[in-house]
Amino acid sequence: MSDAPSMASAGKPDDAIYQTDALIAEDIDAYLEAHQHKTMLRFITCGSVDDGKSTLIGRLLYDAKMIFEDQLAALEADSKRVGTQGQEIDFALLVDGLAAEREQGITIDVAYRFFATEKRKFIVADCPGHEQYTRNMVTGASTADLAVILIDARKGVLVQTRRHSYLCHLLGIRNIVLAVNKMDLVDYSQEVFDAIVADYDAFAKEIGIESYVAMPISGFKGDNITTLSANMPWYRGTPLVEHLETVEVNSARDIDKPLRMQVQWVNRPNLDFRGFSGLIASGSVRPGDAVRVLPSGKTSTVSRIVLFDRDLEEAVAGQSVTICLADEVDCSRGDVIAAADAPPQVSDQFEATLVWMDDEAMHVGRAYWLKLGAQTVSVTVQAPKYEINVNTMQHLAAKTLGLNAIGVAEIATDKPITFEPYAENRALGGFILIDKLSNRTVAAGMLHFSLRRAQNVHWQPTDISRDTHAAMKNQTPRVLWFTGLSGSGKSTIANEVEKRLNVMNRHTFLLDGDNVRHGLNKDLGFTEADRIENIRRVGEVAKLMTDAGLIVLTAFISPFRAERQMVREMLADGEFIEIFVDTPLEVAEARDVKGLYKKAREGKLKNFTGIDSPYEAPEMPEIRVNTVEMTVEEAAEHIIRQILPLK
Ligand code: ADP
């Protein structure tokens, strides 16, 4: 090691020129050019530390004459003096380093490592193997072309082997390598290998894995890694590295499918140029091709395909390009440019698989952001149809999905999105859910299909518009949304406000919590999911009433910020006025108009807001009234004064 350069200093101008590939030494430009045109294989390694994952990755990096990412950057920055590390690194030290790195990174995310061989570039995602890291594995697997599933030859197929295989299959990885590792510890026995493969085969068929490649290896000794091992003459396949170098990557497979490109941004440097830039997810495109822009459905013809400063004759799946169209059709970020005669579908209701990734469980009915590539829409999730036990693949009944749970549910978006089933197209079928308040990514999902009802229910346009209704009443429709603890004074104050508005000739309607629960929502209870659904329905009713031109007053505890936000988003800008009836719990409890606090304290009433169910106070309500300081009349007066300028 003493003469070898340290990794960090490789490629710096002061360094001597080390043993390098002949090509690098002779012609760096040619080398970089060749390097640039190598295909990239993204793969994931699955298994626990004990299965020898770090050792295997170390072996690949060590044997594959790897070039690390930082070295590559240095290489490209400094084309005069270069160095590769190759065989100089001590294998044991490398593996220890990788293992330590993984241990540190284990709770954070996925460790990605870059290396290259003569034939191909690789990104390997090294994901922790335990069940509590399912979300990390899903992250790594979602972009991978191939998965190496490691099995310890002494242990055979384990529960985790099944879990990893299932997740990889679910995430659309079609190239699976079953690497039966530590063959040196079972005397390179063909019987042991064959028994493990037979065992795995039965399981793989069960979950729909159509093909996989099984290899007997030793990451530690290097058997069947770069060259075929003399210790296992009975193995007729290829060494692992050769397989990784030659297996078909996803983008190659996707070229034969119809064209799909999601527009990442509209490129308009000047008035003469308008191009749509993005990654071609599938198919190929040439100037003159007829295309359709989704969701609008408008058609046009490709006039140019531009890559940096050159025009291309053809672009294919896996390439990022800019497409120019012959007509001035509307097309913006998130739209999809597709083959005119084979466009993807557009829908707003789906069945999907969800992998829950947040500590806080899924809230049925709550609105989340759904991000599918460059499309972002609001979405609500129904109660799961079932949860999948990732170890046994059994379907279980579930009310929600907790951290790392995987389930199938129906979802509905507020606007139609352009999509394809995930199994056919990862780019247009894979999405994430984001919590609207915390901005955390809470789930990853895969669209299965559009629900037929979404295609059959269309919004009915009516001739008398909401503006006509409002104009006849000579007022601007609003929703005055009162929120606060039970007994805070919502109904009382809302009632007073309504009386005053009526004196002023305003057309109003008061929707009261208790009254709605007797009719429209009598099927709902007080669980979190039911409360969310209660508010969603009230929001929809309030919205219809504003369409009718009314000023709507609602008096619901509406304890969760997210649901109030959901209603706010259902309505036009400025139409939702949140009124926080701010009464301390002690005061509301002392009033106990309906005797409910007493019951709740005695344990006779479950899920009571303020006692055993939370109330999330508004952070920035339009209006706040403090009923300790204000009488009912003063509170009403205060509210009227605030909304009057709004007409
Ligand atoms: P909620 O609709 O929020 O459950 P209610 O309006 O039904 O609450 O009950 C509030 C009770 O508190 C009523 O009996 C009301 O007379 C009493 N109250 C006392 N002071 C006030 C005040 N300043 N504002 C509103 N209500 C008050």
Topology:
Elements: H1 22-26, H2 28-36, E1 39-46, H3 53-63, H4 69-77, H5 91-105, E2 111-116, E3 120-126, H6 134-141, E4 146-152, H7 159-170, E5 175-181, H8 190-207, E6 213-216, H9 240-246, H10 250-254, E7 260-262, E8 265-270, E9 273-282, E10 284-285, E11 290-294, E12 298-307, E13 310-311, E14 315-316, E15 320-325, E16 336-339, E17 345-356, E18 367-372, E19 375-381, E20 386-388, E21 395-396, E22 406-419, H11 426-429, E23 430-434, E24 441-450, H12 452-456, H13 466-472, E25 478-483, H14 490-503, E26 508-512, H15 513-518, H16 528-547, E27 551-555, H17 561-570, E28 576-582, H18 585-591, H19 596-601, E29 623-626, H20 632-643
Parallel strand pairs: 1-3, 1-4, 4-5, 5-6, 25-27, 25-28, 26-27, 28-29
Antiparallel strand pairs: 2-3, 7-9, 7-16, 8-9, 9-15, 10-14, 11-12, 11-16, 12-13, 12-15, 17-22, 17-24, 18-19, 18-23, 19-22, 20-21, 20-22, 23-24
Helix pairs in contact: 3-5, 7-8, 14-20, 16-17
Task: Provide a descriptive summary of the structure in words.
- There is one protein chain.
- The chain is α+β, with helices and mostly antiparallel strands and 647 residues long.
- The chain folds into 4 domains: 39-65 and 90-248, Rossmann fold (3-Layer(aba) Sandwich); 253-339, Elongation Factor Tu (Ef-tu), domain 3 (Beta Barrel), CATH 2.40.30; 345-456, Translation factors (Elongation Factor Tu (Ef-tu), domain 3, Beta Barrel); 466-643, 3-Layer(aba) Sandwich (Rossmann fold), CATH 3.40.50.
- Helices cover 29% and strands 27% of the residues.
- It is built from 20 helices and 29 strands.
- A 6-stranded mixed beta sheet has the order 2-3-1-4-5-6, sandwiched between helices.
- The protein starts with 21 loop residues before the first helix and ends with a helix.
- Residues 1-23 and 69-89 have low confidence and may be disordered.
- The structure holds adenosine-5'-diphosphate.
- Adenosine-5'-diphosphate binds at residues 484, 486-493, 555, 581, 591, 593, 627, 630-632, 635.
